[in-house]
Predict the structure.
Amino acid sequence: MPALMTHHRFTVIEYDQMIEHGILTEDDRVELIRGEIVEKMVIGSLHAGCVNRLTRLMNQTVHEGSMVTSQNPIRLEDSEPEPDLCVCRYRDDFYSDAHPTAEDILLIVEVADSTLEFDRTIKRDLYADAGIPEYWIVNLSDRCLEVFRSPLGGMYQQKQLIHAGDKLTSEILSQPAEAGWILG
């Protein structure tokens, strides 16, 4: 009978210390998810192009009083993920003294092709548990936008599928948007 392997869970503080001491570097392409250090997938051209387009367009359409960050860490209770895009409350220091926390975050967007199942389950549940008001998955495989809203009890209460040609309304956006600009 094979021996069971024990997993060590890290706190966000321990994870940050590993980064500060050079144990983990930018070259490691990892993030902390529910106490475990998880390897991130390599970003392909389609994924990168979508993130770049979203970043530019979101900067043009989000309400004043908010700001857009791209592929930067956020700090949750036992996690430090790096979502593809995050819209958070504006701060004059641009979060230079600490990563945005759940209370700061208005919207998280993950662009998914090979990570679709992970984003639909692990990340969705993580963000719902943290009370992130809105979570979008740009589903590159099916060319649609999966929108999750109204977290309650660790689950999003609303799910909406948006396809090219559909209008997307959100409290985050200053006006309704054509989904085609998100999907490219």
